[in-house]
Amino acid sequence: MAAVSLAMLLASCVRLIPGGPGAPTALPQAESAAALGVRPGPAIGSLRLGHGNAVAALASFRESCPRVTSRTDTSGLTSPGDWRQACTAAASWAPATASRFFSAFFETARVGDGTAFATGYYEPEITGSRVRLPGYDVPIYGLPPDLVRARPGDAQPLANGRMPLGRYDERGRFVPYYDRAAIEQGALMGRGLEIAWAADPVEVFFLQVQGSGRLRAPDGTVMRIGYAGQNGQPYTGIGGLMRERGLIGSGPGKYPGSMQGIMQYICEHPAEGAALMRENRSWVFFRELNGDGPLGALSVPVRPRSSVAADPRFVPLGAPVWLDLDRGEADGLWVAQDTGGAIKGANRFDTFWGAGEEARTIAGGMSGRGDALILLPKGTLSRLGVQ
Predict the structure, then answer these.
(1) In the beta sheet, which residues pair with residue 301?
(2) Residue 292 has what pLDDT?
(3) How far apart are CA 287 and CA 225, in angstroms?
(4) Which of 31, 32, 145, 245 is most buried, taking the most CB atoms under 10 A from its CB?
(5) Contact of 16 with 267, CB cutoff 8 Å
(6) Listing from the earlier edge strand, what are the strands of the sheet with 148-149?
(7) What is the mean pLDDT of each run of 10 residues along the chain (387 residues)?
(8) Domain for residue 202, yes or no?
(9) Which of 265, 289, 313 is the last residue of a domain?
(10) How far is Cα 143 from Cα 284, in angstroms, rounded to an integer?
(11) Lytic transglycosylase MltA domain location, by residue (predicted)?
């Protein structure tokens, strides 16, 4: 792909797409929920769980059960066996009594002080095509085969003990993988990695931030794509950079701290906008999805108003989460089924709102603060020695 040109950026300004990159959050004080500490929360019956919310959460929890009963929980709170009783019951539990299901099998816990911050994400739909057409010049790449983890001894392990992602160069040396600037300038061209082509580089940038989306071709056909991997380079939220540089706020020369505001800045300052996007060196690779929804980190579909992204070090993926925020539309029960590059730390969540204009609007403006409770299988707190 040629470098992102000013003309291409200016073309993207014809239509601004709402969305919701989150505000920056503090680094966690500990590396897991178990290390940070948990304490009991209120009885589930006191949460005033709505029937429709409970039905949707039960359905999402049921879809998560094959994974939650078999995967390692990096939060240190649960083991696969802890979930089996609830998952066995969920398989045949009647939706009419969904609220009773959660009271019967779960207890609430606060991680740390329970103070929560939540943003929103959605499944964007952008103009794209499986084949390259006139005006469709932005490649959407599949996962490159040379993107690998270093062999032991070829690089320093990461803090979590895993080897870093990168590639081996022509001399057999392990080096970092191409960053955003290099990929935009054509580092991957001519290798047959393109799974589709898009019309707008800015839309592709925010598609990568969201992690999944739909491509609508001129003939009306839709291709759903989802996260396949990432280049191993650090993720930098450009909203945070704009905030640090005094570009976000109120008053002359300031922009709203939403995707609308960020895109407005990029459109009004295309040269600076192109440079700003490249400061996020992370690049996301995609694959085609054939299911009925975008897939989250558990490899099950995420559902509107039911699925939330969380940091798996602090929330067991598959666990129900109760949010009580200053944004009423995000209050209620969610199921942690996804993760995100910007979703780091205890009680940091990203609520999923689906696709379409309403979803984009809600996700774009979502910035809620309040309290969070994690629902754990009954007996978990006792086993952890929490009174």
Answers:
(1) 295
(2) 75
(3) 5
(4) 32
(5) yes
(6) 148-149, 165-168, 174-175
(7) 35 38 46 93 93 97 96 94 97 96 97 95 90 96 98 93 96 97 96 96 89 91 92 93 91 83 90 95 94 84 94 97 96 94 90 88 89 97 90
(8) yes
(9) 289
(10) 9
(11) 125-287
Token couple for 278: 């490249």
Domain shared by 106 and 169, yes or no? no
Q: Which amino acid is at 70?
A: S
> How far apart, in whole angstroms, are the C-alpha atoms of residue 295 and residue 288?
11
Distances (CA, A) of 147 to 132, 307, 356: 24, 30, 33
* Number of domains into which the chain is organized: 2
> What confidence score (pLDDT) does residue 295 get?
84
CA 142 centroid distance within chain? 19
Q: Are 120 and 259 in contact (CB under 8 A)?
A: no
Classify strands 284-289 and 320-325 as parallel, antiparallel or unpaired. Answer: unpaired
Given 235, 256, 289, the domain boundary residue is 289
Q: Which 3 state secondary structure label does DSSP give 101?
A: helix
* pTM greater than the 0.85 cutoff: no
Cα gap 16→11, rounded to integer Å: 11
| CATH of residue 246 | 2.40.240.50
CATH number at residue 48: 2.40.40.10
Kindly state whether residues 62 and 136 are assigned to the same domain: no
Q: Per the structure block, which two tokens stand in for 138? A: 């932005």
